[in-house]
Amino acid sequence: MEQDSQEKPLLSRRTIVAVAVILVLGSSVVATSYSLTYFQVCVSAPSVSFTVVMTDQGFDGSRAHTDPWPVLNVGRCARVTVHLVNQDTTEPHGFAITHYFDSGVQVRPGQTDDITFNANRSGSFLIYCIIICLAHTYMQNGRLNVT
């Protein structure tokens, strides 16, 4: 018996292309999932609003609290708006949140301001005043909790 001098390939060209496409698509899905988790990219953005009143008693009366105050709890990916109201008649007050609003904002006596941001990173972040004033020590321990 004579053997055919040409050997048949183990896999056809079509099979090789199909496997390559599956590998490329699979690695893309894994890379995208990793990126969304690692970089904490938000896909949806429900809206959440808070009002923080500033007075000579601190943020929302924080002078009377021994624990962090105010505490703002939001889900990760929420679109957060904080409405700031300075009811102090003599002093401006500042408002900042680590990571989200580090530059802060100054609100004059009797004025209001809004800040808006996307809560794209989980954790507990400090809420604090950026202006030294009489109530400053009571405005240094608020928390934004993003879960």
Structure description:
The chain has 147 residues and is of the alpha+beta class. It has 2 domains: 10-39, no CATH class; 47-146, Cupredoxins -  blue copper proteins (Immunoglobulin-like, Sandwich). It has 1 helix and 9 strands. The chain has one helix at residues 13-38, and strands at 47-55, 58-59, 71-74, 79-86, 93-97, 101-107, 112-118, 123-128, 142-146. A 5-stranded mixed sheet has the order 3-9-8-5-6, with no helix packed on it. A hairpin with a 3-residue loop joins β5 (93-97) and β6 (101-107). The longest helix is centred in the first third of the chain and has 26 residues, at 13-38. It is rod-shaped, with a radius of gyration of 28 Å. The model has no long low-confidence stretch (mean pLDDT 86).
Produce a short descriptive summary.
With 147 residues, this protein is an alpha+beta fold. The protein is built from one helix and nine strands; from the N terminus they run H-E-E-E-E-E-E-E-E-E. 18% of the residues lie in helices and 36% in strands.
Overall number of structural domains: 2
Describe the oligomeric state of these chains in a short phrase.
single chain
Percentage beta strand: 35-45%
Separation of termini?
A: 74 Å
The outline comes out as: rod-shaped
Reading the helices and strands in chain order gives HEEEEEEEEE
* Sequence stretches where pLDDT stays below 50 over 5 or more residues: none
- CATH architecture classification name of the largest domain: Sandwich
Radius of gyration: 28 Å
Question: What's the helical proportion of residues?
Answer: 10-25%
